[in-house]
Specification:
CATH architecture of chain A: 3-Layer(aba) Sandwich
Distance between the termini of chain A: 33 Å
Strand order of the largest sheet of chain A: 3-4-5
Largest interface: A-B, 18 and 20 residues
Number of domains of chain A: 1
CATH class of chain A: Alpha Beta
Strand content of chain B: 15-25%
Number of helices of chain B: 7
Strand order of the largest sheet of chain B: 3-2-1-4-5-6
Number of strands of chain B: 11
Distance between the termini of chain B: 50 Å
Oligomer: heterodimer
CATH topology of the largest domain in chain B: Rossmann fold
Order of helices and strands of chain A: HEHEHEHEHEH
Radius of gyration of chain B: 23 Å
Number of strands of chain A: 5
Helix content of chain A: 40-55%
Number of helices of chain A: 6
CATH superfamily of the largest domain in chain B: NAD(P)-binding Rossmann-like Domain
Helix content of chain B: 25-40%
Largest sheet of chain B: 6 strands, parallel
CATH superfamily of chain A: NAD(P)-binding Rossmann-like Domain
Largest sheet of chain A: 3 strands, parallel
């Protein structure tokens, strides 16, 4: 999910920095193209999300928007709050699979996106659409 | 008192045992099935299976009536968020979090989760206490109250060595509260003389540490050379 957003944002003309603990993850950013991610203008840092040094190296201090989309809800929720409170990034978006916590943290002022809830709604719409 | 403990590892399980023996009502929550089965043999209904970072699991375990929530899983993110929802969603006044990686302590501080206990950090502090060449030892930090208590070794040839307490020239907002010499401590008077090799306890406002430390630093020498 993160790689898709990163690619779209880069195409839209934004400066994009990706942080991932897996050095191989850069392959996802280069899928379907012969041009390397760096040559396309993107940057890539290897490190874990809670490491402040890695976040700084990836440029968190001067970012205007922050997307927390690791595969762990808890990591995303912690790091999004760090981005919001410590680095005061105006636009913070966080992926939360668990609908209950996505709802509660949304109420606390975090912009959460819950893919599970979106899928449920789409399925419900599809089911109802099929019977009407 | 009703205490909810999330994480039935060595810390959580032993904590539960101790608290139960002191007549507290305790529920443990464990997300690993095998671990849960092992603990359940001893604690029976005192342990519940589930991911303690999910709200329904916490609610099933009775978080709404808990007097205290203790998050001691092996995952710092989980411990942080469990304590955050316990306090802010369920109104639990007292929370205690385990911090596995001392580098994550800053995140606990940022989200105001306290106390956050790091065994690694505690051991590091003990090592510093045994080997004082690492500079001032922080015995107590109260950042909100803007107060700290530090312990310093008086360096050979430092401005402090051989002076009376009143001659130290310490900045306003700092005070010598104890001198440790030859294994015993005493509360000094204004005319008590500080000797090199003493350990001195000071209470001070935050931000004064560098100024205070300079008065006790050995003159231009290697800090380790005096020992």
């Amino acid at each position: 999910m993160g790689s898709s957003i990163a690619k779209t944002m880069l195409t839209e003309g934004h400066e994009v920095s990706v942080l991932d603990e897996d050095p191989e993850a850069i392959a996802l950013l280069e899928r379907g193209t012969d041009v390397s991610w760096e040559d396309q203008g993107g940057s890539f840092t290897v490190g874990t999300a809670l490491e402040v040094d890695a976040l700084i190296e990836a440029g968190i201090e001067r970012s205007d928007a922050f997307v927390a989309s690791t595969d762990g809800d808890n990591t995303n929720l912690v790091i999004a709050q760090v981005a919001q409170r410590r680095y005061e990034i105006p636009q913070v978006v966080v992926r939360v699979l668990d609908p209950a916590r996505a709802k509660w943290y949304q109420e606390q002022g975090l912009q959460t996106v819950c893919p599970t809830k979106i899928a449920i709604e789409m399925l419900e719409t599809a089911v109802l659409g099929g019977t009407s | 008192m009703y205490i909810l403990i999330v994480g039935a590892g060595k810390v959580g399980w032993n904590l539960a045992r101790e608290l139960i023996s002191r007549d507290s009502e305790v529920t443990l929550v464990e997300s690993d099935q095998r671990r849960y089965a092992a603990v359940e043999e001893e604690l029976e209904h005192g342990v519940q299976y589930g991911d303690g970072s999910e709200l329904w699991v916490l609610e099933r375990a009775g978080i709404e009536r808990a007097d205290m929530v203790i998050a001691v899983t092996g995952d710092d993110e989980d411990n942080l968020l469990i304590c955050q929802v316990a306090r802010e969603k369920y109104g639990v006044d007292r929370v205690i979090a385990r911090c596995n990686n001392p580098r994550n302590l800053q995140h606990f501080g940022l989200l105001d989760i306290k106390p956050a206990i790091s065994a690694t950090d505690l051991i590091l502090r003990l090592i510093e206490h045994e080997v004082p060449k690492y500079g001032p030892l922080h015995l107590l930090d109260l950042p909100q109250e803007r107060l700290e208590i530090i312990e310093l070794e008086v360096g050979e040839g430092s401005p402090a060595a051989g002076s009376q307490v009143k001659e130290l020239g310490l900045p306003d907002g700092s005070l010598v509260i104890s001198i440790l010499r030859d294994g015993t401590g005493f509360v000094p008077l204004a005319d008590s003389v500080i000797e090199s090799g003493d350990d001195v306890l000071l209470v001070l406002d935050t931000g004064l540490e560098d100024k205070v430390t300079a008065r006790f630093a050995p003159n231009g020498g290697d800090p380790a050379a005096g020992s």
